[in-house]
Design brief:
Layout (H helix, E strand, L loop, with lengths): L2 H13 L9 H7 L3 H10 L12 E2 L6 E2 L3 H11 L14
Antiparallel strand pairs: 1-2
């Protein structure tokens, strides 16, 4: 495993930590390994667009509940996801 793969695996591990004990294990297991595929798809696209979707209902939670930190989390991701360089004529659409 190269440095890029290790970094991506570490990001997935960090994102998958169930710090607030919300029973996210099934979701983490379901999406593990997809971060690199998603990033490559965005990087290949001639005019990429990304939506950050928050506020999931956790049907498998005990008890079932809503994930409520979506809007603050979205605000944190927005500046972190700004492109460092955009092709001429393109700009992010926030």
């Amino acid at each position: 495993m190269g440095a890029t793969e290790r970094a991506i695996a570490e990001i997935e591990d960090l994102a998958g930590q169930d710090i607030q004990e919300r029973n996210i294990g099934p979701l983490v297991a379901h999406v593990r390994g997809n971060l690199a595929v998603a990033a490559a798809s965005i990087a290949r696209h001639p005019a990429p667009s990304v939506a950050i979707i928050t506020g999931f209902f956790l049907a498998d939670g005990e008890p079932p509940n809503c994930e409520t930190d979506g809007p603050p989390a979205r605000r944190c991701w927005r500046p972190a996801s700004r492109p460092s360089a955009s092709p001429a004529g393109s700009r992010p659409t926030w």
